[in-house]
Specification:
There is one protein chain. By secondary structure, the chain is of the alpha/beta class. It folds into two domains: about 160 residues, Nucleotidyltransferase, domain 5 (2-Layer Sandwich); about 170 residues, Nucleotidyltransferase, domain 5 (2-Layer Sandwich), CATH 3.30.420. The chain has ten helices and twelve strands. The strands form three sheets. A five-stranded mixed sheet has the order 3-2-1-4-5, with helices on both faces. Strand 11 and strand 12 form a beta hairpin. Helix 4 crosses helix 10. The model has no long low-confidence stretch (mean pLDDT about 95).
Length: about 350
């Protein structure tokens, strides 16, 4: 089989990334320029700053990705870029750069959905993994249970009705006095705490047994802290972190395992930034073993935003004939089950 090399670009949030990926599974290079330390000063990502840093860093990361892969543009078969979802200004930097590069190099341009990329990170970690499978996507902006029917067909089984899991982590962490990104600090503190120390809710969505709701849980943490402050009681941050993490993991795992039984899947996949969480990985591993399910998780270096995962998914889009024209636009929000219509040069809801 011919070796197809794809240069991938990712700029959906606060990481400027580029990678060269061969045949969707073999990462020849992966370069990430992170802005975490700068955004930490503001307690979260500032979209305008993120966009400016992408514009400053994108040439460097693309050049280094090609150099690290010992490639030139002549060796590249296609250029892929994240076009949705994400911060619109940040996305536009990557999309416009990729369009210009593809046009000047006379290469095909492949648009990639960011969440499909997160799922595809598992194809890199587990070369034997193939659809169909059931995937839990948990990140700062998304919490989905997705029935991955093929490399290009997705069906949403469950989703969050308010906050995403990662968003709840960051907001709960801020109320506890942790720096951004808060999920890392809660995970570390939880390892030293008692998960039963604080009684926190496990919200459910009436009539939607596979959907998530984290807003009430986040509010319960904030109220616990405020009530303790008003009474002059000291909060044990390790215990509260452990109690919060236990609640989040139980909610995610409970819905996922139920959905797996209902859809008759025995292959379970974890993806997204929250897939790096040690508590979630441990609980899901235990529950999959108890239910006889095979579990696939990305290696930690692929849990966060990166271009290698975009290049992995781009390979399957490329061989399916997905191509974008020079007037490709970016989209701040876009359901994962929408498909890219090459004639319209835009995504559309499948019939």
């Amino acid at each position: 089989m011919d070796k197809i090399k794809i240069l991938a670009i990712e700029s959906s949030c606060d990481e400027t990334a580029a990678a060269v990926v061969e045949n969707g599974r073999n990462v020849l290079s992966s370069v990430i320029s992170s802005q975490v330390e700068e955004h930490k000063l503001y307690g979260g990502v500032v979209p305008e700053i993120a966009s400016r840093r992408h514009a400053e860093n994108i040439v460097y990361v693309v050049d280094k990705a090609l150099s690290d892969a010992e490639c030139t543009l002549d060796d590249i078969d296609a250029i892929a870029v994240t076009y949705a979802p994400g911060l619109i200004g940040a996305l536009l930097v990557g999309v416009n750069f990729a369009k210009g590069l593809a046009m000047s190099a006379n290469k095909p341009l492949v648009p990639v959905h960011h969440i499909k990329g997160h799922i595809a990170s598992n194809y890199i970690t587990h070369p034997e993994l193939e659809p169909p499978f059931l995937c839990l996507v948990a990140s700062g902006g998304h919490s989905h249970i997705v029935d991955v029917q093929s490399y290009s067909e997705y069906r949403i089984i469950g989703r969050t009705r308010d906050d995403a899991a990662g968003e709840a982590y960051d907001k709960a962490a801020r109320s506890m006095g942790f720096d951004y990104p808060g999920g890392i600090y809660i995970d570390k503190a939880a390892q030293n705490g008692n998960p039963n120390a604080y009684k926190l809710p496990r919200p459910k969505v009436d009539g939607s047994e596979y959907d998530f709701s984290f807003s009430g849980l986040k509010t319960a943490v904030i109220n616990t802290i405020h009530n303790a402050q008003q009474k002059g009681i000291e909060i044990n941050t390790d215990d509260l972190s452990a109690s919060f993490q236990q609640a989040v993991c139980e909610i995610l795992c409970d819905r996922l395992i139920k959905a797996a039984h209902a859809t008759h899947h025995n292959k379970i996949v974890l993806a997204g930034g929250v897939s790096a969480n040690s508590g979630l990985r441990k609980m899901l591993t235990e529950q999959c073993e108890q239910n006889g399910f095979s579990l696939y998780m990305p290696k930690l270096s692929l849990c966060g935003d990166n271009a290698a995962m975009i290049g992995a998914q781009a390979y399957y889009e490329y061989i399916n004939g997905v191509r974008a024209k020079s007037d490709l636009n970016a989209y701040a929000s876009l359901p994962i089950d929408w498909v890219f219509n090459c004639e319209k040069n835009a995504p559309e809801k499948p019939m």
